[in-house]
Structures are given as C-alpha cells and as structure tokens.
Design a protein that fits this description.
Blueprint: E1 4-7, H1 11-21, E2 27-30, E3 44-47, H2 49-57, H3 63-66, E4 68-69, E5 72-77, E6 80-86, E7 90-91, E8 94-95, E9 100-103, H4 104-116, E10 121-124, E11 128-135, E12 138-144, E13 149-153, E14 156-158, H5 165-169, E15 176-189, E16 197-202, E17 212-217, E18 222-228, H6 238-253, E19 260-273, E20 278-279, E21 282-284, E22 290-291, H7 299-320, H8 324-353, H9 356-361, H10 366-378, H11 381-384, E23 417-420, E24 425-427, E25 437-442, H12 451-454, H13 460-468, E26 474-479, E27 489-493, E28 499-504, H14 508-518
Length: 543
C-alpha cells in the first residue's frame, strides 16, 4: 500500500509521521522549506503532561531534559500576590503537573532527528505542493521545486500551518476572529525573584507595564516575557520595547538587573477553525485546522493531540481498511474539542479584557478572574484541561455491565503502573500509541504473586480468551489498583489512551461490543463485515 503523505515538517507533521512509523505505517514528509529552523528563543512552546509524554514516546525522550518544568505559578495584581500554586504538588484534591517549556526550534529539531533516523519516514525538503487529486484508492499530489515530481499516497494530512496550501486546494473555509490578542515578546537571560516559577502580573504599577505581563522560565536562566498590547495596533518600536523591559525588571527586582537580550518579537493571535477536517482521504491537523492562543491556550498542544488521535486511525485503515465511522471520528472528536476550547476563550475574553459593564455581570472577585486567566497556562478547566471524547461516535452505549471508575468514559486514563503477561512492568502510558487497544484488569496483590500463578488463576483464563476473541488486537495488562475501581474491574483503553469503558468483572460479550464500537465497526475495504458474536474465534488485527 502507498505511504501516507504528510505535508509540513513542523512539530505536528513530524509527530504524525513518527506516530505512524511506530505503528508500521510508512510516510512521506513534504515541506517547502529547507528542513531546518532558524533559532528563535522568543518563540517557545508549553507542553502539558500528556503532550510532553507523547513527544517522548515518539522518539524525543530528551524533551524532559532540554525543556524546563515550572515548579510554581504566581498571579499578582498591582502589588498584591493573588495566588501561588506549587506545580507537581497537590492543590486540594487536584494534582497540577508541571508543564514543559522550551524553544520551538529545539522541539522541532529533536523530532526531526528522530524522524530522520526512522526507516519508515522519508523527508523531502523544498517540495511545495501545487496539485492535489483524490480517487477511491488514494491521493496524488504534484510538488514544485528542485525535485518537481508526482507523489502517490494512501492518505494525505495537511500539517502545513495557518496558510495551509492543502486546505486551500481542498477548498475548505477557515473562518474565525483576527487579532484576538497582540503581545510584545522578549527572551532574555536574567536573574528574577522567582527561579523556576511562572508569573502572571496584572495591572503592574509602573508606567510602561500595560494591562498584563507574564514571565515564564526557560532552561539556562532564560525567561520569556510577554506584554499584552492594546487591541488597536500600538506600534512597538525597539526603543519602546527596551523601555518596557527595563521598567518591568526594575518593578520586579527593585532595580534593573543585568540582563542579556536574546530575541524579541510582536505576536498577533488569531482564533480560527476549519469548517471541515476531512475531505475523503485528505485530512487537516495543527494550525492548518485551527488557530488559538489567547489566555494561555496552546495551539501546539492541540496540534500534537490531533496527531495522536489521527495516527492510530490511519494506521488501522492502512493495515486493514477501516469503517468510515473510524475516519470520521477524527473530526468529530478533535474539531469538537478545539471548538470547545475556542468557545471558552471567546466567552472569557470579554470578562477578562472587556469593560466594567460586562465584568460586573460575572460573580467573583479579581481572584476569580486570575484563576480563570491561569487555567489556560496551567492546563486546567475549559481553557486548558486535556480533552474528553465522551460523545464520540466511537463511544459505546452505557449498559448495566459498565462500571464507574475515577476516569469518565472518553477521558484520558490515569497513568498507573501495569504488568504485561510476559512479566514486563511499566507505566500505562508507556504502552500507548502502538496501534492496539489495551485491556487492563484491576487485580490487587498481583505485584507480589508469581506471574506463573496469576496467569492461570481466578478470572485471568477467561479474560485471556475474551481478549483473544476481540475484533481488534489488544494487549492484556494487569494493575494493582486504579482510581475509583474495585477488584476485578476491567478497563478497555483506546490506542491513544482514552477510556472506552470499564466493566465490573469479565464480560466477554460486552467487552467485544465495546471494542467493536471503538474501532468504528466493521471494516469496509473489501466489503467484508468482520463483526462476530461474543465467543466467536474470528478476530481482526488492528496493529
């Protein structure tokens, strides 16, 4: 079968090609650029726990070393500390993991090195597509450049940014809002009073502070400073930016400390959402499909989630054919998740940036507003929490056999320690993105039992038979405990780590039905209906 064509060698395109390669799917990665990025210290990315771990699994484990994990978050208003949150600690009953902050060119270089070392990824620079044709069996594109040629692929994914050529060739509209926020940005090396902590300072009490300034630490003593600019296009001259830097550092430190200015810029943030993310065998992902970024929301985080979501579905289709439901679920899940994020930001902006009239209608003090502002940065609430796909077409209907656990159906699973049937132990998330589902049995005491005993004891033989009979290949794992689950609870987990369903005990028929729904039903490549009744020995391999 022809490889998948991925257009765009940014972090999202590279991650998608690596995720496909991890599931034995070849890809051709086309990009109009030279295949390397100019270092821009002021252009940085903030990766949440789930996306940082995805990047590490895909071949760039050093992301945890080359990025900086914040150890805290401070919200300040005028001269008063409003909120201080230790990250990686418990705040009430909610654990707030530390995000990873690093320059985008560092992330891209790490992913590109991993892709370049993989036999299943072919990187082709200086290749701008100008023609895209589709038929029932694949996609054909023409590229212009030094190696002008035609390419044939099984599927195509446009990860080619906000001005996506793929989106334009597919004639997909990209409506939204222009210039939602503008920020002056500086990357500098200096000693600030809060080493390792990110700071959001509203209404700073110095002349050039403006409405809001944030300071977010990077590795090697570097900080990224962002000043929120007025919406009406204030001109930011080099002298004006230097004044902002000096005034801000003096306001925080008492006097302007020595600093090394590394990079500056003015960024304008837009909110846009493509009308469609799929057109037959062509898909959109990352900035080609959506733009966001106001109030601390992270567009690249969402783009990496696009890649993780789409990769296992394309892998299933590439190896075995796939039901239209499975391919359509990419748009149903990811577009709805990003639309919800944009809607939350658009509803919050008038409250946080607007006049006192609307602000007066919203209950809560400035402390509540600062909490809302922090959510996008910290990965909490509607502005930042990892998405849940409870209403996905891949979600089975709830039945009496389903059990309630600490994770809702459609949400990302907890990262518990698990043991495979061969005795290997790992974290649950380390088993993700391999193209197959996971079946996890909660069995207290297995950690101290000899594997030879628990494999043949209790419910295990029956569960082994049920897993082998599933319509999609699945790996059987055992865990000592899972939040909210009782002994002998069985969890069915998608390849991308979202919970399909939990069952109170071994229920082969219900487990089969849930797995069949989660893979989109019967494959349609050759018209064969691979559904089988519970207990049947017919199986279909997802890989």
């Amino acid at each position: 079968m022809d490889p998948v064509i991925v257009v765009g060698q940014g972090p999202v395109g590279l991650a998608l090609s690596l995720a496909l390669a991890a599931q034995d799917v070849p890809s051709v990665l086309l990009d109009e650029g030279p295949g390397k990025d100019e270092p821009r210290p002021a252009r940085t990315v903030v990766l949440r726990e789930d996306t940082a771990e995805l990047v590490a699994r895909l071949g760039f484990p050093a992301v945890h070393d080359v990025g900086l994990r914040w150890n805290g978050w401070r919200s300040v208003r005028r001269k008063q500390l409003v909120r201080a949150v230790p990250l990686g600690e418990l705040e009430g009953a909610v654990q707030l993991p530390s995000p990873v902050h690093l320059p985008q060119h560092t992330l891209t270089a790490g992913l590109r090195a991993a892709a370049g070392a993989h036999d299943l990824v072919t990187i082709v620079p200086f290749s701008r597509i100008d023609t895209l044709e589709q038929d029932p069996h694949g996609v054909t594109v023409h590229t212009r450049g030094p190696g002008s040629t035609w390419w044939r692929g099984s599927f195509l994914v446009g990860c080619d940014g906000a001005r996506s050529t793929v989106r334009k060739l597919l004639d997909i509209r990209f409506p939204g809002r222009t210039a939602v926020e503008r920020h002056a940005v500086a990357a500098l090396r200096a000693e600030l009073p809060w080493p390792g902590e990110a700071v959001l300072h509203r209404s700073p009490p110095w002349r050039s502070g403006g409405a809001e300034v944030t300071a977010r630490p990077l590795p090697d003593g570097v900080w990224r400073l962002d000043w929120l600019l007025p919406p009406r296009g204030e001109l930011v001259t080099p002298d004006a930016l230097i004044t902002r830097i000096r005034d801000t550092l003096e306001g925080w430190c008492g006097e302007t400390p020595a600093y090394d200015l590394l990079d500056t810029g003015v960024y304008t943030l837009h909110h846009r959402l493509a009308r469609s993310w799929r057109s037959e065998r062509a898909f959109l992902a990352g900035d080609a499909a959506h733009l966001l970024g106001a109030l601390g929301t992270q567009g690249l985080d969402e783009g990496l989630r696009d890649a993780g979501n789409l990769a296992w579905k394309l892998a299933h289709a590439w190896h075995h054919g796939a039901a239209e439901t499975l391919l359509d679920s990419y748009q149903a899940e990811r577009r709805a998740a990003v639309a919800s994020r944009l809607r939350a930001a658009d509803q919050s902006l008038p409250i946080l940036r607007g006049g006192a009239g609307l602000r007066a209608l919203v209950p809560g003090s400035s402390r509540g507003h600062d909490t809302l502002l922090a959510d996008g940065h910290l990965g909490c609430g509607p502005l930042g929490a990892p998405p849940s796909y409870a209403h996905s077409p891949l979600s089975p209907r709830s039945t009496e056999a389903h059990a309630t656990v600490g994770t809702l159906p459609g949400a990302p699973v907890a990262d518990v320690r698990v043991t495979a049937t061969d005795g290997e132990t790992s974290r649950l998330r380390d088993r993700l993105d391999r193209g197959h589902m996971l079946v996890v049995l909660v069995a207290p005491g297995t950690g101290v039992w000899d594997r030879r005993h628990w494999l043949t004891a209790g419910v295990m033989p029956r569960l082994v038979d049920a897993v082998e009979a599933l319509p999609a290949r699945a790996e059987l794992l055992v865990t000592e405990s899972y939040p909210g689950a009782t002994a002998h609870t069985v969890l069915l987990v998608r390849p991308d780590g979202h919970l399909v369903a939990a069952f109170g005990g071994v229920r082969p028929g219900e487990l089969f039905a849930a797995a069949d729904t989660a893979r989109g039903g019967a494959e349609t490549a050759d018209g064969d209906d691979s559904r089988a009744p519970a207990g049947s020995d017919r199986t279909a391999d997802v890989n």
